[in-house]
Amino acid sequence: MTVATSANSYDVIVVGLGAHGSATVRALAARGVTVLGIDRFSPPHAWGSSHGETRITRQAVGEGEAYAPLVLRSHEIWRELEADTKLDLLVQCGGLVLAPTGGTAKHHGHDDFLSNTITVANRYGIDHEVLTATEIGRRFPQLMLRGDERGYYEPGAGLLHPERCIEAQLRVARAHGAHLRTDERVLTLDDDGSSVTVGTDKGSYRAAQAVVAAGAWIPELAGGTFAQHLKVHRQTLHWFEADDITNYSPDRFPVFIWMWGDKAEDYFYGFPVETSGTLGVKVATEQYGSVSNPDSFDHDVSEEEQQSMYRAQVAPRLRGVGPRCIQSAACLYTTSTDSGFLIDQHPEYPRITVVSACSGHGFKHSAGLGEAICNLYLDDGKYSSAFQPFLVKRLDIGA
Ligand SMILES: Cc1cc2nc3c(=O)[nH]c(=O)nc-3n(C[C@H](O)[C@H](O)[C@H](O)COP(=O)(O)OP(=O)(O)OC[C@H]3O[C@@H](n4cnc5c(N)ncnc54)[C@H](O)[C@@H]3O)c2cc1C
């Protein structure tokens, strides 16, 4: 590890200041590392993967137990950031995962996501209940159930405010002395064997190491192995008007993931209505039909997209929610071939770590992951066992 010596030279440069980049910059700056963060926009913004007011956070993650330490640590960090910034970031309104009893509903690349969730909860001692359809219906009459559902209810799950989380991370990073450059686009990355050079549309910077957390632009920036194993997909989010929003307030209604059939598309998720945000019930599905370009995807959501969401998901399942769509947004998933995270050394530039932690479930882990990336730097680039499940090398693709 070398230490920064001149004006344009840093210990670490972080490219991208969204969910993961802002968390990494904050963690590094808090440990006294000289760090520069660069973003092509001015985060938080609505051009990548971290906008739309809310993200679900669950401590027992059906995507696999390797993720549990990240989200558990993240919950601690969100509370620390709230204390530091006085911003409300995490609302533990409870979370419900629903699937047909006896089914094996697949989600985020995992068969029987509901049973996986319960296994992780038991392994990590995460407070939860397993509910029958009758119990779910009694507790959450807003849901129109078929009667064959089984539910996992986690009282400590809930929602995060992604834009505020990023704002908090960057505010604290700045207070710890991080240098942040926004509206500056990184164009080139180089590693000459002793340091990294990052070229932008405004200048050139050097560092001992760099972290590329450029979200949907990683395939373009990191290329090679990463481009081969990541695809970008446009997603849509919709807020529908409820007859009485108090029925959907966070003290009466949880975040939910509802796999109502066994096929991957028999699925939607949603959020309670907070009076500080858009006054509608926010719902979404996942769309993998076509590949998107982050520079040219359609940011507008059509009325047909809104109404097909209402007809297929909302009308048959959420009581007292009408067809009027108050607001919609389009956002990007960067999905790996196995729906996991890809985090590893750049195959050509060993001083550059590439962090693609999306596949539609990365936000909840971002605070803990930023800290883990910081520890990677402090540990002289040694990937601890915690990283093994996420390394590109595990895909055996010769990175
Ligand atoms: C619709 C939707 C719903 C989701 N729901 C959930 C959920 O409920 N729970 C959950 O945990 N996760 C969820 N996710 C996933 C989560 O939001 C993502 O994993 C996370 O936001 C990804 O963060 P990131 O830092 O990788 O990308 P971003 O936050 O997009 O940050 C990348 C940054 O890199 C910058 N950048 C790109 N190229 C350059 C360049 N050349 N030079 C400089 N800067 C550059 C961009 O401007 C951007 O700010 C969801 C994602 C979407 C899209």
TrEMBL record:
<keyword id="KW-0560">Oxidoreductase</keyword>
<dbReference type="Pfam" id="PF01266">
    <property type="entry name" value="DAO"/>
</dbReference>
<dbReference type="InterPro" id="IPR045170">
    <property type="entry name" value="MTOX"/>
</dbReference>
<dbReference type="InterPro" id="IPR006076">
    <property type="entry name" value="FAD-dep_OxRdtase"/>
</dbReference>
<feature type="domain" description="FAD dependent oxidoreductase">
    <location>
        <begin position="11"/>
        <end position="375"/>
    </location>
</feature>
<dbReference type="InterPro" id="IPR036188">
    <property type="entry name" value="FAD/NAD-bd_sf"/>
</dbReference>
<protein>
    <submittedName>
        <fullName>Monomeric sarcosine oxidase</fullName>
    </submittedName>
</protein>
<keyword id="KW-0285">Flavoprotein</keyword>
<keyword id="KW-0274">FAD</keyword>
